[in-house]
Design goal:
This protein is 32% helix and 26% strand. The protein has 14 helices and 23 strands. Helix 4 packs parallel to helix 6, helix 6 runs parallel beside helix 7 and helix 8 (232-245) runs parallel beside helix 12. The structure holds uridine-diphosphate-2(N-acetylglucosaminyl) butyric acid. Residues 23, 26, 92-93, 116, 119-126, 160, 162-165, 186, 233, 303-304, 326-327, 370-371, 398 line the site of uridine-diphosphate-2(N-acetylglucosaminyl) butyric acid (EPU).
Length: 418
């Protein structure tokens, strides 16, 4: 097991450079399979989720060359075979292979994907997208076999703007015959990143980033190149670190537009910040105001920053309220924050109330999932004394070099292998 150990209370000064977005990269890598030629993806983050996807690519017979933050994938000689459950359950994004293999070979056999345990996370909308393209879905226990003689453009209305279902339907539809329309599509920047990549390979996708995406099928996808967008959730996490412990901390390589919902919320709280075109400066501010926050799909406040933000809400002067609308089990961090001294009341499954400010004290806690872990890292940075976060593999799945990045700006943090 990996443990993150933090000696709290140190001011953060200097620059943190933001890496490529996990949730883009984990879709771009499976999307590469749709090409019949070599594709190149730049600004790939060095996180364990990418290692797991590379394992699947290699298992299928793709040639994968990874050098620094660039990955070159040649899928010419892949064999379309069942992806073992032992690999697919390592992460949620493994199911992007379901759609790219279906799109390319009209047949795929795969198991239910893994991912953080933050709710039920069904895949019904993805399967509905496949069926709208004329595919048959056979579900046996945990295993899905999806096939079609040919995929034909269809019209799908998503019951909720699901990121995964939007990307999966796009991937399955790029080589279908005729036009596919996805309505009530998710609008996250990661979806635009994937559409740009596919279009660069020769696909015809319009409307990505809006709630209606139109895809005109093409026969062949060829060479392609894409740069992974900066990770808005990683950026948001370090911005919150700056609001907790920063002294003019620079968060570099960001697209501020992508995190407007956080930036504006912090301004509402009275946090000192200077936002520029691709970076911002942020400092710890006394007497920050409490706020009401509700998570919602992009451009709303992201569920992935809800847990990290909770740490900052413990430092506001007054009572804040937080509503989680996306996942039914994303408050597993609360018990640990309480142990550290936070005053948080869970009002019902979806709502919490945070009274601040409270001093936090270092404790041994556990990362139950990726963003719960990020929340506890932030709590450790601001707490008095030593915080030990067990099961920190979860954190390393999504934050490239988190220990190095935080140490470089003055934190006292290390990883223990036990
Ligand atoms: N949903 C369904 N049926 C479906 C699909 C989704 O009911 O077929 C529900 C989900 O249960 C959830 C909501 O719709 O309540 C939204 O789910 P969505 O499909 O949008 O989420 P996802 O694609 O599984 C991605 C990110 C998550 C992020 C969400 C929301 C990846 C690999 N994961 O998940 O990231 O929270 O979008 O923005 O892109 C994280 O990075 O920590 C993380 C969990």
């Amino acid at each position: 097991m990996k443990q993150i150990e933090i000696d709290g209370g140190h001011i953060l000064e200097g620059t943190i450079n933001i890496s490529g977005a996990k949730n883009s990269a984990v879709a771009l890598v499976p999307a590469a399979l749709l090409s019949d030629d070599v594709v190149v993806i730049n600004n790939i983050p060095n996180i364990s989720d990418i290692d797991a996807l590379n394992e699947i690519l290699t298992y299928l017979g793709a040639e994968v060359l990874r050098e620094n933050d660039t990955i070159k994938i040649n899928s010419k000689n892949i064999i379309n075979k069942e992806i073992p459950e032992s690999i697919s359950k390592k992460l949620r994004a493994s199911y992007y292979f379901m759609s790219s293999l279906l799109g390319k070979y009209k047949h795929v056999e795969m198991f239910f994907p893994g991912g953080c345990s933050i709710g039920a996370r069904p895949i019904d909308q993805t399967l509905k997208g496949f069926e709208a393209l004329g595919a048959t879905v056979i579900e046996e226990g945990n295993k899905f076999t999806v096939f079609a003689d040919k995929l034909v453009g269809g019209h799908v209305y998503l019951d909720m703007p699901s990121v995964g279902a939007t990307i999966n339907t796009m991937l399955a539809a790029v080589k279908a015959e005729g036009e596919t329309i996805i309505e009530n599509a998710a609008k996250e920047p990661e979806i635009v990143n994937v559409a740009i990549f596919l279009n660069n390979m020769g696909a015809k996708i319009r409307g990505a980033g809006t709630s209606e995406i139109r895809i005109t099928g093409v026969n062949k996808l060829g060479r392609g190149f894409v740069e992974v967008i900066p990770d808005r959730i990683e950026a948001g996490t370090y911005i919150i670190a700056g609001a907790l412990m920063g002294n003019n901390l620079k968060i570099n390589n960001i697209i501020p537009d992508h995190i407007d919902s956080l930036i504006l919320k912090l301004k509402e709280m009275g946090v000192k910040m200077n936002v520029h075109e691709n970076h911002l400066f942020i400092s710890k501010t006394e007497n920050i105001k409490p706020v009401i926050v509700k998570t919602i799909g992009y451009p709303g406040f992201p569920t992935d920053l809800q847990q990290p933000l909770t740490t900052l809400l413990t430092q506001c002067s007054g009572t804040s309220y937080l509503e989680e609308t996306i996942y039914e089990n994303r408050f597993q961090n609360i018990a640990y924050l309480r142990n550290m001294g936070a005053s948080i009341e869970q009002l019902d499954k979806r709502h919490i109330k945070i009274n601040g400010p409270t001093n936090l004290t270092g404790m041994t806690v556990e990362a139950t999932d990726l963003r719960a872990g990020a929340c506890l890292v932030l709590a450790g940075l601001v707490a008095n004394g030593k915080t030990i976060i067990n099961k920190s593999e979860h954190v390393l799945r999504g934050y490239e070099n988190i220990v190095e990045k935080l140490n470089d700006v003055g934190a006292k943090i290390k990883i223990n292998e036990i």
